[in-house]
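Example 3.2
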Amino acid sequence: MKKLWLSGLLAILIIAAVGCGQKPGTSPQGNETSSIQDPVAATPDSNGGGDDAGQNGQSGITDPGTPEQLQADITVYFTDEDIMDLKPIKREITYTDANDKYETAFKALQMADEGLISLWDKVELNALDFSKGQLVIDITLPPEARLGAGGELLAIEALKKTMFQFDEVESIEVTVDGEQLESLMGHVDLDHPIIR
């Protein structure tokens, strides 16, 4: 009887131990299981091209997730405190495609060096698209972005010089909140499109 009782107790303990050992793997959250499986499954897609992926020849899997970074030296144009003429400043930009290149150039046009003034810093860029030689730039002009006649003329000239340095840009269409306006800020005629 004693042996039967001990055998039953031993069987219960074995079942309990086996059941407890399986709980982490079968829990609803599966923390232990996911921490073991996710790095292996995620490495090619989300690791951005780790050493293992490159060594196993799986670099083709990681490349689509990370666009190639390109660099270009450009010139952007600012003015001084007197707002009398434009000052060219060299910048290096990093971009991934054509639209990103022009958007990055526009953003560089908005950030002047110390002692200079950007004529576009308060302008909000809504959209930018390049197609068939034409660069379409849609902006919002808050009241603080509006300039006098001289500032408006220099702002348009700064935009033209910055964007036309890219040989593929043949024309620039500037719209304000999706509309073609006769004048950007009310002083200078705005061509639609601006031709090189």
